[in-house]
C-alpha cells in the first residue's frame, strides 16, 4: 500500500493515470499529452507498471498502456474510514449551522 502512495505522490504519474482513465493510449500519445520526452515518459510508465497500476499490451509495433483498477480499489478501501470521518464531521457542522439559523 505505501508503495502505491509513493508512486502516486509524483504529479506526472497521476496525470498519466488521469489520461488512461479516459481510454488506453499508446506511448507516443502519452508523450505528446504530457510534453515529456519518450524516455522520461517511459520511466514513469515503468514505475506505474511495476506498482501494478497500469499494464502494457502490444498493438503491432507499439505498446498501448491501460489502467488497472484493482490496485486503486485497494487504496479506496484504505481511504474509506477517513472519508466516513470527514462525512460525519461535515454532517455535524451542517447541523450546527442549521441550529444557529
Automatic annotation (TrEMBL):
GO terms for molecular function: DNA binding; DNA-binding transcription factor activity. This is Winged helix-turn-helix transcriptional regulator. SUPFAM superfamilies: Winged helix' DNA-binding domain (SSF46785). InterPro entries: ArsR-like_HTH, HTH_ArsR_DNA-bd_dom, HTH_MetalResp_TranReg, WH-like_DNA-bd_sf, WH_DNA-bd_sf. Pfam families: HTH_5 (PF01022). Residues 1-87 form the HTH arsR-type domain. Keywords: DNA-binding, Transcription, Transcription regulation.
Amino acid at each position: 500500500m505505501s508503495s502505491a502512495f509513493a508512486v502516486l505522490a509524483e504529479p506526472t504519474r497521476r496525470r498519466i493515470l488521469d489520461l488512461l482513465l479516459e481510454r488506453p493510449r499508446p506511448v507516443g500519445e502519452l508523450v505528446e499529452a504530457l510534453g515529456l520526452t519518450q524516455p522520461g515518459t517511459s520511466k514513469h510508465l515503468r514505475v506505474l507498471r511495476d506498482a501494478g497500476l497500469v499494464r502494457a499490451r502490444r498493438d503491432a509495433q507499439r505498446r498501448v498502456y491501460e489502467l488497472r483498477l484493482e490496485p486503486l480499489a485497494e487504496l479506496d478501501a484504505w481511504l474509506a474510514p477517513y472519508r466516513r470521518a470527514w462525512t460525519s464531521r461535515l454532517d455535524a457542522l451542517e447541523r450546527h449551522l442549521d441550529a444557529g439559523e
